[in-house]
Design goal:
Shape: globular
Radius of gyration: 17 Å
Strand order of the largest sheet: 5-4-1-3-2-6
Oligomer: single chain
CATH superfamily: Peptide methionine sulphoxide reductase MsrA
Largest sheet: 6 strands, mixed
Order of helices and strands: EHEEHEHEEHHHHHH
Number of helices: 9
Low-confidence stretches: none
CATH topology: Peptide Methionine Sulfoxide Reductase, Chain A
Number of strands: 6
Strand content: 15-25%
Bound molecules: S-oxymethionine
């Protein structure tokens, strides 16, 4: 049940990447996600030794299903861009091309009209992206070993490239909501028990904000 469509990439930092991974995973048109470290100069950063990098998500999206503007909407809605920043948990849009840069700048201008406080968000060109450790990938999903097993995954590098893992990682914390879940769950090819297990979690967690 992996999908073969041509995708584009986007990268966002919105604070703790466990939550960012869940937020974007459940978004329509997002095909794959992976979390990692970028923005800094330190070679081969790790979670314990991050250096000057920031927790960031890389998204592969299907541009016929979701626009970059819609991904930007999610970015602005999912955090307070006027809040105090640290290097590890920052508000940054890393653009891949001139078009993304222009759209990001425009959205930042619109955003600044909505608040009197200064927006801290940075708009920067992508630099080397270092994948985070496997245990950080689809972190919310990995808290449910029973689900990992049901989709034939165990913690490891395959988790990063799995479409179904990206989706379920959002749904287990209620992201996406039950209406969207019911509409698209057939596409995931899950058995009946698994469909119900995840659905119960969506119902229980919809609308909740999880703090990392
Ligand atoms: N409170 C969490 C933050 C994890 S996050 C991916 C921890 O202490 O591990 O930065």
């Amino acid at each position: 049940h992996e999908v073969k469509v041509s995708t584009k990439k986007a990268k966002f930092a919105i604070g703790c990447f466990w939550e960012t991974d869940a937020i974007y995973g459940a978004q329509k048109g997002v095909i794959r996600t992976r979390v990692g470290y970028t923005g800094g100069k330190k070679i081969d950063p790790t979670y314990k030794d991050l250096g000057d990098h920031t927790e960031t998500i890389e998204i592969e999206y299907d541009p016929s299903e979701v626009t970059y503007d819609e991904l930007l909407d999610t970015f602005w809605k999912s955090h307070d861009p006027t809040a105090k920043q640290t290097l590890q948990y920052s508000s940054i849009i890393f653009y891949h091309d001139a078009e993304q840069k222009a759209l990001a700048e425009k959205s930042l201008q619109e955003q600044s009209k909505k608040t009197s406080k200064p927006i801290q968000t940075k708009i920067l060109p992508i630099t080397t992206f270092y994948d985070a450790e496997d245990y950080h990938q689809k972190y919310r999903l990995q808290q449910h070993p029973i689900l990992m097993k049901a989709i034939n995954l165990e913690s490891g590098p395959k988790v990063k490239s799995s479409h179904v893992a990206a989706k379920l990682n959002g749904y287990v914390v209620g992201r996406g909501g039950v209406a969207q879940y019911d509409k698209e769950v057939k596409k995931f090819g899950l058995d009946e028990n698994t469909v119900k297990y995840v659905r119960d979690l969506v119902v229980k967690n919809e609308g909740r904000d999880l703090v990392c």
